[in-house]
Amino acid sequence: MRLAKGPRPFEVRLFALAFVTSASIGLFRNFPGLDVEYLVWQSSFGQITFSRDALIVASFTAFTIALIPIVWIYFLASSRARWVVMGFGFLKLAIYLFVSPNWYLGLFRGFPGLITFLEPILIFVALGMLWMPGMKEWLNPSGRDARADFE
User: How far apart are CA 41 and CA 61, in angstroms?
Assistant: First the structure.
């Protein structure tokens, strides 16, 4: 794959900003309440014993994985990545809606709660940007060498 050339449309930049901000919120949300995060991980994976260091590594790993779609779309202009990002984005939104149905209550818990409330909103904005005209033009392989996606 080659790096995409040319100026990025507004939609591509807004997608990247929304996605990075959402991933950053997910990363930094865990640190003040590391004890609560420990209980969440322990209840999900009871057979594994977690330390505070392991939770920090897991949080940074999730953050790093969240940066992959930005590389795909912003730097490589991969048209196939749109579908992968949409699938995982909808999965993340479904987790907010069905696994944590009270996520919207963060709006009433002051500034930290408001930041947590913004995470799914930013994911929704990022997914919406994937279907805007500027993004479709950016991801359209007809304007560049189609073989570049396979090299």
Answer: 14
- Rounded average pLDDT over 109-132: 82
Per-residue pLDDT tens over the stretch 20-30: 999 998 888 76
- The Cα–Cα gap between 86 and 72 comes to 13
Handedness of CA 148, 74, 132, 113 (dihedral sign): positive
Count other C-beta atoms under 10 Å from residue 73's C-beta.
27
Phi then psi for 109, rounded to 5 degrees? -110, 25
The Cα–Cα gap between 48 and 41 comes to 9
Concatenate the DSSP letters of all residues of 24-54 into one string.
HHHHHHHTTTHHHHHHHHHHHSTTS---HHH
Q: What is the mean pLDDT of residues 113-118?
A: 73
Pairwise CA distance, residues 141 & 147, whole Å = 9
Please write the tens of the pLDDT for every residue from 63-80.
Answer: 999 899 999 999 999 888
Chain centre to alpha carbon of residue 53 = 23
User: CB-based burial of residue 79 (10 Å sphere; 0-12 exposed, 13-18 middle, 19+ buried)?
Assistant: middle
